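Query structure, 257 C-alpha coordinates:
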Protein backbone atom coordinates (compact mmCIF):
# COMPACT_ATOMS: atom_id res chain seq x y z
CA UNK A 1 0.00 0.00 0.00
CA UNK A 2 1.40 3.39 -0.98
CA UNK A 3 1.74 5.88 1.83
CA UNK A 4 0.42 9.36 1.16
CA UNK A 5 3.28 11.74 0.57
CA UNK A 6 3.55 14.57 3.07
CA UNK A 7 4.79 17.83 1.59
CA UNK A 8 7.84 19.28 3.33
CA UNK A 9 7.38 22.79 1.94
CA UNK A 10 4.47 25.11 1.31
CA UNK A 11 4.38 25.91 -2.40
CA UNK A 12 3.08 29.40 -3.18
CA UNK A 13 1.81 30.14 -6.68
CA UNK A 14 2.05 33.65 -8.09
CA UNK A 15 -0.78 33.95 -10.62
CA UNK A 16 -1.35 36.93 -12.89
CA UNK A 17 -5.02 37.59 -13.68
CA UNK A 18 -5.01 39.01 -17.16
CA UNK A 19 -7.50 41.70 -18.19
CA UNK A 20 -8.01 42.39 -14.47
CA UNK A 21 -4.36 43.40 -13.92
CA UNK A 22 -4.27 41.71 -10.53
CA UNK A 23 -1.81 39.31 -8.92
CA UNK A 24 -3.14 36.32 -6.99
CA UNK A 25 -0.95 34.54 -4.42
CA UNK A 26 -2.23 31.11 -3.39
CA UNK A 27 -1.00 28.27 -1.14
CA UNK A 28 -2.10 25.51 1.24
CA UNK A 29 -0.36 25.95 4.58
CA UNK A 30 -0.79 22.53 6.20
CA UNK A 31 2.95 21.63 5.89
CA UNK A 32 4.02 24.88 7.54
CA UNK A 33 1.50 24.43 10.36
CA UNK A 34 2.72 20.87 10.94
CA UNK A 35 6.30 22.12 11.38
CA UNK A 36 5.03 24.94 13.62
CA UNK A 37 3.32 22.51 16.01
CA UNK A 38 6.28 20.11 15.97
CA UNK A 39 8.49 23.05 16.95
CA UNK A 40 6.20 23.98 19.84
CA UNK A 41 6.10 20.35 21.01
CA UNK A 42 9.89 20.00 20.81
CA UNK A 43 10.43 22.99 23.09
CA UNK A 44 7.49 22.39 25.43
CA UNK A 45 5.62 25.47 24.21
CA UNK A 46 1.94 26.16 23.66
CA UNK A 47 0.06 29.22 22.43
CA UNK A 48 -3.43 29.70 23.82
CA UNK A 49 -6.40 30.77 21.72
CA UNK A 50 -7.02 33.17 20.09
CA UNK A 51 -3.27 33.84 19.90
CA UNK A 52 -2.50 30.49 18.25
CA UNK A 53 -4.98 31.00 15.40
CA UNK A 54 -4.02 34.64 14.90
CA UNK A 55 -0.33 33.78 14.66
CA UNK A 56 -0.95 30.97 12.16
CA UNK A 57 -3.08 33.20 9.96
CA UNK A 58 -0.56 36.03 10.15
CA UNK A 59 2.24 33.68 9.04
CA UNK A 60 0.14 32.64 6.05
CA UNK A 61 -0.62 36.19 4.90
CA UNK A 62 2.98 37.22 5.55
CA UNK A 63 4.26 34.37 3.37
CA UNK A 64 1.96 35.34 0.50
CA UNK A 65 3.11 38.95 0.90
CA UNK A 66 6.75 37.89 0.55
CA UNK A 67 5.96 36.16 -2.75
CA UNK A 68 4.37 39.37 -4.01
CA UNK A 69 7.71 41.08 -3.31
CA UNK A 70 11.15 40.70 -5.02
CA UNK A 71 13.22 37.66 -4.05
CA UNK A 72 16.21 39.35 -2.45
CA UNK A 73 14.41 40.84 0.53
CA UNK A 74 13.95 39.97 4.17
CA UNK A 75 10.76 41.10 5.90
CA UNK A 76 9.44 41.22 9.44
CA UNK A 77 6.08 42.18 10.91
CA UNK A 78 5.31 42.85 14.56
CA UNK A 79 1.66 43.31 15.48
CA UNK A 80 1.15 45.03 18.83
CA UNK A 81 -2.36 44.00 19.86
CA UNK A 82 -4.93 45.50 22.14
CA UNK A 83 -7.90 43.67 20.63
CA UNK A 84 -8.95 40.82 20.73
CA UNK A 85 -6.11 40.03 23.15
CA UNK A 86 -3.06 41.83 24.52
CA UNK A 87 -0.01 40.33 22.80
CA UNK A 88 2.77 40.94 20.32
CA UNK A 89 2.74 38.70 17.24
CA UNK A 90 6.07 38.52 15.40
CA UNK A 91 6.72 36.96 11.97
CA UNK A 92 9.78 37.14 9.75
CA UNK A 93 11.20 35.36 6.73
CA UNK A 94 12.85 35.49 3.33
CA UNK A 95 12.40 33.91 -0.08
CA UNK A 96 16.18 33.42 -0.25
CA UNK A 97 16.18 31.11 2.78
CA UNK A 98 12.75 29.64 1.87
CA UNK A 99 11.75 30.10 5.49
CA UNK A 100 9.19 31.82 7.65
CA UNK A 101 9.05 31.82 11.44
CA UNK A 102 6.82 33.39 14.04
CA UNK A 103 6.14 33.59 17.74
CA UNK A 104 3.88 35.33 20.24
CA UNK A 105 4.90 37.51 23.18
CA UNK A 106 2.35 37.65 25.99
CA UNK A 107 4.38 38.85 28.99
CA UNK A 108 5.23 42.50 29.69
CA UNK A 109 3.50 43.63 26.49
CA UNK A 110 2.86 47.34 26.08
CA UNK A 111 -0.86 47.97 25.59
CA UNK A 112 -1.31 50.27 22.59
CA UNK A 113 -4.13 52.76 22.10
CA UNK A 114 -5.12 50.69 19.09
CA UNK A 115 -3.75 47.70 17.21
CA UNK A 116 -0.50 48.62 15.47
CA UNK A 117 1.57 46.88 12.80
CA UNK A 118 5.32 47.52 12.55
CA UNK A 119 6.83 46.40 9.23
CA UNK A 120 10.54 46.15 8.43
CA UNK A 121 12.21 45.54 5.07
CA UNK A 122 15.89 44.65 4.63
CA UNK A 123 17.78 44.62 1.33
CA UNK A 124 21.49 43.90 0.95
CA UNK A 125 23.65 47.03 0.97
CA UNK A 126 20.63 49.28 1.56
CA UNK A 127 19.24 51.06 4.59
CA UNK A 128 16.35 49.26 6.34
CA UNK A 129 12.88 50.56 5.52
CA UNK A 130 10.33 50.70 8.32
CA UNK A 131 6.65 51.58 8.45
CA UNK A 132 4.12 51.83 11.28
CA UNK A 133 0.38 51.73 10.71
CA UNK A 134 -2.72 51.46 12.85
CA UNK A 135 -4.79 48.42 11.91
CA UNK A 136 -8.56 48.15 12.53
CA UNK A 137 -10.63 45.25 13.78
CA UNK A 138 -9.67 42.04 15.51
CA UNK A 139 -9.07 39.74 12.52
CA UNK A 140 -5.95 39.21 10.42
CA UNK A 141 -7.70 39.84 7.09
CA UNK A 142 -8.62 43.38 8.13
CA UNK A 143 -5.05 44.00 9.31
CA UNK A 144 -3.41 42.84 6.09
CA UNK A 145 -5.82 44.64 3.77
CA UNK A 146 -5.28 47.85 5.75
CA UNK A 147 -1.51 47.32 5.60
CA UNK A 148 -1.70 47.14 1.81
CA UNK A 149 -3.87 50.24 1.68
CA UNK A 150 -1.58 52.36 3.85
CA UNK A 151 1.93 50.96 3.40
CA UNK A 152 1.80 49.51 -0.13
CA UNK A 153 -0.71 52.16 -1.26
CA UNK A 154 -2.83 49.77 -3.30
CA UNK A 155 -5.76 47.46 -2.79
CA UNK A 156 -5.59 43.84 -1.66
CA UNK A 157 -8.20 41.22 -0.82
CA UNK A 158 -7.60 38.22 1.43
CA UNK A 159 -9.57 34.97 1.42
CA UNK A 160 -9.26 31.88 3.61
CA UNK A 161 -10.65 28.84 1.77
CA UNK A 162 -11.04 25.18 2.76
CA UNK A 163 -8.10 22.87 3.55
CA UNK A 164 -6.01 25.68 5.06
CA UNK A 165 -5.76 27.36 1.66
CA UNK A 166 -5.09 31.11 1.74
CA UNK A 167 -5.41 33.46 -1.24
CA UNK A 168 -4.31 37.09 -1.48
CA UNK A 169 -5.18 39.16 -4.56
CA UNK A 170 -3.38 42.47 -5.02
CA UNK A 171 -4.04 45.31 -7.45
CA UNK A 172 -1.37 46.03 -10.06
CA UNK A 173 -1.16 49.19 -12.23
CA UNK A 174 -4.46 49.79 -14.10
CA UNK A 175 -6.19 47.08 -12.07
CA UNK A 176 -9.92 46.44 -12.34
CA UNK A 177 -10.65 47.84 -8.88
CA UNK A 178 -14.40 47.26 -9.13
CA UNK A 179 -13.91 43.58 -9.94
CA UNK A 180 -11.41 43.22 -7.09
CA UNK A 181 -13.68 44.92 -4.54
CA UNK A 182 -16.65 42.69 -5.40
CA UNK A 183 -14.84 39.33 -5.31
CA UNK A 184 -16.17 36.65 -2.96
CA UNK A 185 -14.73 33.33 -1.79
CA UNK A 186 -16.64 31.23 -4.35
CA UNK A 187 -15.29 33.34 -7.22
CA UNK A 188 -11.76 33.14 -5.84
CA UNK A 189 -11.99 29.37 -5.53
CA UNK A 190 -12.76 29.09 -9.28
CA UNK A 191 -10.51 31.94 -10.35
CA UNK A 192 -8.36 29.88 -12.72
CA UNK A 193 -11.45 28.40 -14.33
CA UNK A 194 -13.33 31.64 -14.93
CA UNK A 195 -10.53 34.15 -15.56
CA UNK A 196 -7.65 34.35 -18.02
CA UNK A 197 -4.69 33.56 -15.75
CA UNK A 198 -1.02 32.69 -15.99
CA UNK A 199 1.23 31.20 -13.30
CA UNK A 200 4.27 33.49 -13.17
CA UNK A 201 6.35 31.63 -10.58
CA UNK A 202 6.27 29.39 -7.54
CA UNK A 203 8.24 29.73 -4.32
CA UNK A 204 8.67 27.29 -1.45
CA UNK A 205 8.61 27.98 2.28
CA UNK A 206 8.78 26.07 5.53
CA UNK A 207 8.61 26.99 9.20
CA UNK A 208 12.26 27.22 10.15
CA UNK A 209 14.25 29.57 12.35
CA UNK A 210 17.74 28.12 12.03
CA UNK A 211 18.69 28.88 15.63
CA UNK A 212 20.94 26.39 17.44
CA UNK A 213 22.83 26.35 20.72
CA UNK A 214 26.08 26.54 18.73
CA UNK A 215 24.94 29.81 17.13
CA UNK A 216 23.94 31.27 20.50
CA UNK A 217 27.24 30.41 22.24
CA UNK A 218 29.42 33.17 20.66
CA UNK A 219 27.10 35.86 21.99
CA UNK A 220 27.21 34.36 25.48
CA UNK A 221 31.00 34.10 25.33
CA UNK A 222 31.21 37.79 24.38
CA UNK A 223 29.09 38.72 27.39
CA UNK A 224 31.23 36.52 29.62
CA UNK A 225 34.44 38.20 28.41
CA UNK A 226 32.94 41.58 29.29
CA UNK A 227 32.73 40.37 32.89
CA UNK A 228 28.96 39.81 33.03
CA UNK A 229 27.97 37.31 35.70
CA UNK A 230 25.71 35.21 33.51
CA UNK A 231 24.99 32.40 35.96
CA UNK A 232 24.86 34.23 39.30
CA UNK A 233 25.47 31.01 41.20
CA UNK A 234 22.92 28.99 39.23
CA UNK A 235 23.80 25.65 37.64
CA UNK A 236 22.45 26.74 34.25
CA UNK A 237 20.79 29.64 32.48
CA UNK A 238 17.80 29.58 30.15
CA UNK A 239 18.12 31.27 26.75
CA UNK A 240 15.05 31.97 24.63
CA UNK A 241 15.29 32.62 20.89
CA UNK A 242 13.62 35.97 20.10
CA UNK A 243 12.45 34.73 16.68
CA UNK A 244 10.86 31.36 17.44
CA UNK A 245 10.75 31.13 21.27
CA UNK A 246 12.93 28.00 21.32
CA UNK A 247 14.36 27.40 24.79
CA UNK A 248 17.99 26.39 25.40
CA UNK A 249 19.70 25.60 28.71
CA UNK A 250 23.39 26.43 29.04
CA UNK A 251 25.75 25.31 31.81
CA UNK A 252 29.09 26.93 32.77
CA UNK A 253 30.87 23.80 31.50
CA UNK A 254 29.27 24.16 28.06
CA UNK A 255 30.27 27.81 27.91
CA UNK A 256 33.86 27.06 28.93
CA UNK A 257 34.15 24.43 26.19
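Result returned for the query:
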Amino acid sequence: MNEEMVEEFVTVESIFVRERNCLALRAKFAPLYTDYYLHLMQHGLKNQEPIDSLLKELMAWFTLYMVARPWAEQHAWTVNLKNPVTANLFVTGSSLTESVVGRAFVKDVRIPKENTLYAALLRKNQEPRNSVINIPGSDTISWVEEFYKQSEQRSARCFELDDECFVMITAQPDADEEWLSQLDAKQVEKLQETENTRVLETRKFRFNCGCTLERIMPTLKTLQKKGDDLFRGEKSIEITCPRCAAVYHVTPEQLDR
